[in-house]
Amino acid sequence: MNAPSGGETVQRSAAAGMAQKRDAGNVHLDVAGLTKAYKGKFAIEGVGFKVRAGEFVAVLGPSGAGKTTLFRCMTGLLTPDRGTVKLADLDVMQLHGRERRHVAVVFQQFNLVSRLSALGNVLAGRLGYVPAWRGWARRFERGDRLLALDCLDRVGLLDKAGQRADTLSGGEQQRVAIARALAQQPDAIVADEPVASLDPKIGSGILDLLRGICHRDGVAVVCSLHQMQFAQTYADRIVGLANGRLVVDMPAGAFDTATAAQLYGGAELRSMLD
Ligand SMILES: Nc1ncnc2c1ncn2[C@@H]1O[C@H](COP(=O)(O)OP(=O)(O)OP(=O)(O)O)[C@@H](O)[C@H]1O
Ligand SMILES: [Mg+2]
Fold it and tell me: Where along the chain do its domains lie?
């Protein structure tokens, strides 16, 4: 797992560029038997799949299929009724406070602190590494600031470092959110519809960034998407949920129209392709 913060570590990261490359090919994130019901009705039931380090997995499925419930369970935001989520040797559900840094979350609505600058938001990604008092006082060390600037540079927003988050465009805000995730030096990034609020061109840019981080840094990425074309273009593997169950798990190149019809049903698929 990642080394704790310290001058030496941060300088290495800032210079070398983010997290060390993991052993691509190893099973990194292992989701098994996840089940969550609301008032006796299953939102997800027995969902399991594995993600390797450096693998980009897209999660597809119709509205209400259980994608957000799955993601919330995977990130510890929601406690499932049954099932486990392992990140290498860590039990994600047992991670608390600063240990949560191992899994970064990217949201559809960006979830930035609007009154903080882009840099201030990215520095929030370092909270899992610095002593609590530094976080409260927002007194980050030079190494953390350099690393945060490096992350902003990587998403193409170094020139906006001092700009308030709520004055950035939607696409820029999502880039800042990705820079914040990078600053966390995570082992996995879980992104629930990160491009649903953006136009397709801007969305492609965001997915390019996520794929770059995934492949270059060996981070496991799980990303839900509404546009299956995006999943086919960017993902290494596609898993599909329907009615809370996992019904598809295959290489993205094998995902064809027949599989899409099975996942979405004919009518919904036609409306997606119109
Ligand atoms: N807090 C909750 N209380 C009750 N039911 C819920 C709750 N959260 C989700 N559900 C139900 O669980 C099911 C799955 O919802 P979920 O939000 O996970 O779907 P989704 O695949 O993310 O949909 P979308 O593509 O529209 O975002 C839905 O039937 C939803 O109504
Ligand atoms: Mg959802």
Answer: 7-264
- Cα 68 to ligand 1 centroid, rounded to whole Å: 7
Please report the pLDDT score of residue 274 as a whole number: 67
Name the residue at shortest CA distance from atom 17 of ligand 1.
Answer: 68
| 7-264 under CATH 3.40.50.300, yes or no | yes
Whole-model pTM: value is 0.88
Which residue is closest in CA terms to ligand 1's atom 13?
43
Q: Which residues in the chain come in under a pLDDT of 70?
A: 1-25, 27, 135, 137, 266-267, 269, 273-274
Q: Report the nearest-CA residue for atom 28 of ligand 1.
A: 64
Distance 263 CA to ligand 1 centre (A): 17
Our answer on whether the CB atom of 125 is closer than 6 Å to any ligand 1 atom is no
pLDDT in the model for residue 267: 64
Cα–Cα distances in angstroms (integers) from residue 234 to residues 23, 55, 163, 189, 251, in the given order: 21, 11, 30, 15, 11
Write down the pLDDT at residue 100.
83
Beta carbons within 8 Å of 190's beta carbon, 6+ residues apart: 71, 74, 75, 103, 104, 105, 106, 221, 222, 223
The CB of 69 under 6 Å from ligand 1? The reply is: yes
pLDDT at 82: 97
